[in-house]
Amino acid sequence: MIAIESLSKRFPRVTALDRLTVGIEPGVTGLVGANGAGKSTLIKILLGLSPATEGSATVLGMDVATQGGAIRERVGYMPEHDCLPPDVSATEFVVHMARMSGLPATAARERTADTLRHVGLYEERYRPMGGYSTGMKQRVKLAQALVHDPRLVLLDEPTNGLDPVGRDEMLGLIRRVHSDFGISVLVTSHLLGELERTSDHIVVIDGGKLLRSSSTADFTQRTAVLAVEVTDTDTHPDGAAALREALRQAGVALHEPGPDGGRAPGAGHLVTLDAADESVYDTVRDAAAGLGLGLVRMEQRRHQISEVFTERSAGDVA
Amino acid sequence: MSPDRTPAHTTSPHAVPGQAAPGQWEQSGSAGAAGRGQDVIHNIGYRGYEGPRLGRGYARRALFTQALRGAYGLGRSAKSKVLPMLLFATMCVPAALVVAIAVFAKSKDLQVTYSEYVLLMQPIIGIYLAAAAPQAFSLDLRFRTTPLYFSRPLTRGDYVAAKYAALTAALFVFTAVPLLIMYVGALLAKLGVAHQTEKFAQGLVFCALFALLHAAIAAWIAALTPRRGFGVAAIIVAITVPYFLVSALQGIAATTDKNTAIGWLGVGSPGTLLDGVQSKFLGGPSGFPAAQTLDAAQGAVYLVVLVALLACFTTLLLRRYRKAGL
Question: Does this model's pTM top 0.90?
Fold first, then answer.
């Protein structure tokens, strides 16, 4: 889908991309990086709107330097910021954007109706967009990126500003863009945990450099963290401590409570550990049962990008 | 449709959205196509688009039409139709009166010539322009819609060309329709076909020049002021203040008997510049004090300045969008 070869972009004062080489396959790919990591610059270059200082990139087999127009005809783009005029209805707006992508008027209307329905906008699509909630606006923004049936969509921070429910819906929608619509997705976020749930593959960039590019399965397997909460009983007044001791003896790699461990509500009762493989779940269950403790919850922790950075620093030292 | 992007069949019991790996779709292609025939009614799954993609030229034309309609409030809310339509009516009614007067007075010609009519109506045109230009240029910048255009096949040049052409066309329609009313009225009143046709043609050329120059100036100002209110005020100021200033100076020159100065001063504002051009080249009466007309040198300078202003403002407009990226 996308091949990036030693791509650099330097501005007079900053280097936005530094010899980035990465390939992106069909499917949903998450592009993770802190603000200013070079995500937006990369998207601009991939759309053929900004020339790279050096290196090359192809999108759908077309060179970004020479075939920008042809790329933009078959690629959709959803910007991070607001981009909707408030006095126009979603239908009118998306029809107009479809025509700007080259669709004839009738096709533009049909595709608009289809696309808006697929992103979950129904009767409200005839109302001016000024009165829409953030979630509805994000759907319209996604619809205008999909309306010309692109082969690839670039979504810049699509979950920005959404509440947890809206976030989940948007992530589900992004997943469907590939699984149901057959359109490949490159989605950026600064939250790794969020992209883990939707992406087949994750690319992490920092300071314009590639930090990591691996499949999501690989990612989670290597960094799966399990949080376990148990009850206290009369025999074990501090259930968490007892479980920790039992697991240590069973040879499970435990995380020592961090310096802020005591501050978060209920954190004293949480035991965090590395789940190297499936058998750890059984070990935890058996240990809790052996001690007669109630197992309140056992959950996989979401990772923040910071963990990848810590991991890298550790690797650099070694 | 290429096999690698055959969509999953949503109503198929085997398809579990969000669960399948990308490789699976390659195999499901034929099964999906076979299943589709059986449950057409229930299938509201995603359909791809295999029809034509008409590209840049088409998108440019579509943008032109949309912006032209938008300049009259068409395709927008009812509220935004009120002002342009009211102004358009205000523009047309006096033209009908000019015809009516000519008919009742049984005169041989219209009391007001075609190009003169446009110059007389400048305040109305100014207000219309101040409403239409920000509508075409400021809104996309204010609501940051431009990235959506530039992430499509359209280039910045296409976008600016389409919008500028639309504003020019809107302004041309705004000024030429009243002239058409006068012309049709004059023909119905049997005022002399040859003479009227010649004057009307000259009037249309004048309308085109007027629209080109004013649209360029207003478009540039509107593109610099994303807030519509500022744009409206700035355009009215830019069009009226130089005009009144130059007219005042010309008045002073006329009272002190410096008649050649009147011509030179006229270069100083778009309105007087166009007035000079129409009186010199398009057979209209001069609106300058003492009905001063231009000599040959002045005429040449007027034309050069007109072309230079057009080039200057369209270049500035294009430059404004050089940085307006994603």
Answer: no
